[in-house]
């Protein structure tokens, strides 16, 4: 490393202990937050109460209070003081203030949801270096996984299958199980094969056999099953068959030009088998719906709230599976190409939610969506003085806090594991990582599935909090917003990502709307220039300024800082060892090996 001072090492100034200051700020901001959200007390304070009710002042008070947790993390203070400030802020003061103003609890849940999303995307983008612009698709999977079953929509689905069975449940189950086993077994078998293991005629024969099998399967299914009163449309067969035929013609042309197309044929065969597995899973699920349709029609308010905990695990699994399915065909791409195709796949999920009216209610959305009912927690909330209509929001607040803590713990453990080091190696140099034995596809799929699972579970909590989900909640701007949180906070830095999510959420939900509301009545500000109408412009300007002034983020990791500022003089570590400084009259620079002990000893020392 470049020596900043070749004569003497840089002496670090000791960091002062700020325990007292931390506690003082915590007490002051906590009192201010409780005062600003106590309406009865504000009515007695006259002008001060009016000032504290101002939206801008209220947003500043909330921001200053949340800064306590940041100070507890950054400052040097006694461990008991850090724990007191962190736990006291999140477990005592915020719920206490939220008892008077439930919008504060709602804001806190939103911050934690986006913090968890940013932590998940940070694995994909910050650690593995995969630019995913369709990340919100996994969020939608978790939201709809709970929203469909915990709402009246579930009874409507059962009623539809009672009126339009299309086929017997037993026949659907048999066909689905056979298709699933054939697709999954064939895919796993081909995963162990390499293109070099197949001859040219063998690769062509396998692919053509699978295409013929797909056509035969479709025609057989069309003869046995219907969609209501209608047979399966032949257009669905042609939509898949024509692109496949064009691809095969192109591969035949390439083979005629002397190119080796065995790898492409093997990849196409894997795709066909993976599609068979997906179709088989859908048919098995359909058979289950047919078998239970009569009972489902009676669930006019959705399934029992006790299944909430089971669906927490199912939402993680479903989002991880979707992450793997999206990742499989695209992970050989990188950079801008990966960003474009993940953007498209994310939009596919949103369009499917918009068009599958039977399951998602289309653009109208699903409502009302239930939440968990925890008797002992409701009793505890009642004893703490919360109103009955606040039980659910307080429960989701505590659940979100626990989920963020668990996700953060998993992130830290993964970052320090062999998988985390493999992600960082792939991000820095894919070719070098592969040369060192890192399996690229498997490692990238783990990153996709892990990040997707975090988004899935938080999507379920989001659906339970909003009691309403629609495709508009999962558009491209949500993915861009989460990516902005990761970049603004600091890619690869877990505390930085949480800080970025907090800052962006406060800007979008409190500070900028409060600024617009406070200036709406000022006659000297034209309506067209009101900050309330220019929130996107102001937010964009803040991001541009941030990238120009601090590109590594608000709270970057040391690794990221060194990457962006490697030209700057670094600390001279030579004084910590027995060797001389690296530059300037401190001695020669020897080759790697043992240090020389005498002037006439050969370079590298003696063994």
TrEMBL record:
Q: How does it sit in the membrane?
A: Multi-pass membrane protein
- The portions of this protein that span the membrane are 20-36, 56-75, 80-97, 109-128, 135-155, 167-190, 202-220, 232-253, 265-288, 308-330, 337-353, 391-412, 445-464, 476-500
CDD domains in UniProt: TM_PBP1_LivM_like
Transmembrane: is it a keyword of this entry?
yes
Q: Does the keyword Cell membrane apply?
A: yes
Q: Which domain of life is it from?
A: Bacteria
A Pfam family found in this protein is: BPD_transp_2
Stretches the record annotates as Disordered: 565-607
Q: Where in the cell is it found?
A: Cell membrane
Q: Which UniProt keywords apply?
A: Cell membrane, Membrane, Transmembrane, Transmembrane helix
Acidic residues: bias regions: 597-607
InterPro entries per record: ABC_transp_permease, LivM-like
This protein is called what? Answer: Branched-chain amino acid ABC transporter permease
Q: Species name for this entry?
A: Deinococcus rhizophilus
């Amino acid at each position: 490393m470049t020596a900043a001072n070749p004569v003497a090492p840089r002496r670090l100034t000791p960091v002062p202990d700020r325990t007292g200051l931390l506690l003082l700020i915590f007490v002051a901001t906590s009192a201010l937050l409780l005062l600003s959200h106590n309406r009865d007390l504000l009515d007695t304070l006259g002008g001060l109460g009016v000032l504290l009710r101002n939206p801008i002042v209220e947003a500043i008070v909330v921001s200053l209070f949340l800064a306590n947790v940041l100070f507890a993390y950054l400052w040097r203070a006694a461990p008991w003081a850090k724990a007191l400030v962190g736990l006291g802020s999140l477990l005592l003061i915020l719920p206490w203030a939220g008892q008077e103003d439930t919008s504060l609890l709602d804001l806190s849940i939103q911050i934690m949801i986006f913090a968890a999303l940013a932590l998940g995307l940070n694995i994909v983008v910050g650690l593995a270096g995969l630019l995913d612009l369709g990340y919100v698709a996994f969020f939608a999977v978790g939201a709809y996984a709970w929203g469909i079953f915990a709402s009246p929509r579930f009874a409507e689905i059962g009623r539809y299958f009672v009126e339009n069975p299309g086929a017997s449940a037993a026949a659907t189950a048999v066909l689905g199980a056979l298709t699933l086993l054939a697709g999954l077994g064939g895919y796993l078998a081909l995963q162990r094969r390499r293109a070099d293991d197949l001859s040219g005629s063998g690769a062509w024969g396998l692919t053509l056999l699978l295409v013929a099998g797909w056509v035969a399967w479709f025609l057989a299914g069309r003869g046995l099953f219907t969609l209501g009163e209608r047979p399966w449309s032949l257009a669905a067969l042609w939509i898949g068959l024509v692109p496949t035929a064009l691809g095969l013609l192109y591969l035949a042309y390439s083979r005629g030009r002397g190119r080796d197309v065995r790898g492409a044929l093997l990849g196409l065969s894997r795709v066909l088998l993976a599609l068979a597995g997906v179709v088989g899973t859908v048919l098995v699920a359909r058979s289950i719906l047919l078998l239970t349709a009569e009972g489902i029609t009676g669930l006019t308010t959705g399934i029992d709230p006790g299944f909430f905990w089971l669906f927490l695990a199912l939402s993680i699994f479903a989002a991880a599976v979707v992450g793997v399915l999206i990742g499989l065909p695209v992970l050989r791409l990188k950079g801008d190409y990966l960003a474009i195709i993940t953007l498209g796949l994310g939009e596919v999920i949103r369009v499917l939610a918009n068009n599958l009216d039977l399951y998602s209610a289309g653009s109208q959305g699903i409502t009302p969506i239930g939440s968990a009912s925890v008797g002992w927690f409701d009793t505890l909330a009642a004893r703490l003085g919360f109103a009955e209509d606040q039980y659910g929001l307080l429960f989701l607040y505590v659940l979100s806090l626990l989920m963020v803590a668990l996700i953060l713990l998993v992130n830290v453990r993964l970052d320090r594991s062999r998988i985390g080091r493999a992600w960082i190696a792939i991000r820095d140099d894919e070719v070098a990582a592969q040369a060192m034995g890192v399996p690229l596809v498997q490692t990238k799929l783990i990153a996709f599935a892990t990040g997707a699972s975090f988004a899935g579970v938080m999507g379920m909590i989001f659906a339970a909090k909003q009691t309403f989900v629609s495709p508009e909640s999962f558009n491209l701007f949500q993915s861009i917003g989460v990516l902005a949180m990761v970049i603004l906070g600091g890619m690869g830095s877990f505390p930085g990502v949480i800080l970025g999510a907090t800052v962006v959420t406060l800007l979008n939900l409190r500070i900028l709307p409060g600024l617009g509301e406070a200036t709406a009545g000022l006659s000297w500000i034209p309506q067209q220039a009101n900050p309330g109408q220019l929130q996107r412009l102001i937010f964009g300007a803040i991001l541009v300024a941030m990238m120009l002034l601090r590109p590594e983020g608000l709270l970057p990791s040391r690794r990221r800082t060194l990457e962006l500022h490697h030209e700057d003089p670094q600390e001279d570590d030579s004084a910590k060892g027995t060797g001389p400084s690296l530059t300037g009259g401190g001695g020669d620079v020897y080759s790697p090996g043992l240090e020389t002990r005498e002037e006439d000893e050969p370079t590298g020392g003696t063994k």
